[in-house]
Design goal:
Blueprint (H helix, E strand, L loop, with lengths): L3 E6 L8 H10 L27 E8 L5 E8 L8 H5 L5 E4 L2 E4 L9 H5 L6 E2 L18 E2 L13 H5 L5 E5 H15 L7 E3 L9 E5 L17 H15 L6 H15 L1
Parallel strand pairs: 1-10
Antiparallel strand pairs: 1-8, 2-3, 4-5, 6-7, 9-10
Length: 266
């Protein structure tokens, strides 16, 4: 059995946000507070949050005929093979469930190291306590959350994939997804000469591979990003492990222990 992955094909996305709604429903996540704006803005919320695990990003793009068109892109955690967030987490709250990167909120201390380490701006620490959601627990203040590829409340086909009406999001063995992406790219380049595939190599290979209508940098996606070196993180985390043993299990004291550890090892 090989690794699985998502394929996000922005050339097929119609911007319906069904994926966004399905994720909310399956995980029983609360809605974002609506913010009125005089600017026409289709990306909502503008970023991922502790209660929005995926969203659709709207960008303007120029095609081969120099005409401006939309690119709509489903975005969630890219589930890196070598994730920065896991490397820097001092509490061991982030782990790999097979190839999916998952946060154990029971261990999370809300230090925001994963937030700072992720160049994709994926994990977020909740500033509030919210009502119950799919696992029978709840979104808790000072805990980090993100997409877990439906590994917390398990299903065979992730919720976002199951509802996509245009097959813009598919789910299969990673080797097949990679082959499909390369084949699809050849066809897309006829209309979008600068089209690219993102995720084949980054961070050891992402488990969310995306077909883009232009270069990755156009959409804030770094090419050839460098994973964090673990040596400095290990030193800091070792000191945290010692100091946190005196925290009496209190989250506030654990966060203080982390701040002290970071101060003396930075």
């Amino acid at each position: 059995m090989g690794d699985f992955a998502f394929l996000v094909d922005t050339t097929k996305c119609i911007g319906c946000k069904a994926c966004q709604v399905a994720c909310k429903q399956w995980n029983n996540l609360p809605a974002e507070e609506a913010v009125l704006s005089f600017n026409q803005e289709y990306t909502y919320p503008k970023t991922l949050t502790a209660i929005t695990f995926n969203h659709v990003i709207f960008s303007e793009i120029e095609n081969a005929d120099s005409r401006i068109q939309w690119q709509m892109m489903h975005k969630k955690c890219f589930h890196c093979e070598v994730p920065n967030c896991l490397t820097v987490c001092p509490a061991g709250a982030i782990y790999k469930d097979d190839y999916w990167v998952v946060i154990d909120q029971a261990k999370c201390i809300g230090c925001k190291e994963c937030v700072n380490a992720c160049i994709y701006n994926v994990p977020h620490v909740s500033e509030n306590d919210y009502h119950e959601y799919g696992t029978g627990s709840f979104i808790a203040k000072n805990k980090a959350y993100k997409c877990h590829a439906c590994r917390v409340k398990v299903r065979d086909i992730p919720a976002c994939v199951s509802v996509c009406p245009s097959d813009a999001i598919t789910f299969d063995y990673r080797v097949k997804i990679a082959a499909d992406a390369k084949k699809r790219l050849r066809a897309v380049k006829k209309d979008f000469p600068m089209a690219s595939v993102y995720g084949l190599e980054e961070y050891g290979g992402l488990h969310v591979i995306t077909i883009l209508k232009d270069r990755p940098e156009k959409f804030g996606l770094a090419k050839n990003p460098v994973p964090f070196k673990s040596k400095s993180s290990n030193t800091r985390n070792d000191l945290y492990g010692i100091l946190s043993s005196f925290s009496l299990g209190l989250p506030s004291l654990k966060r203080l222990a982390f701040k002290i550890s970071k101060h003396f090892t930075s």
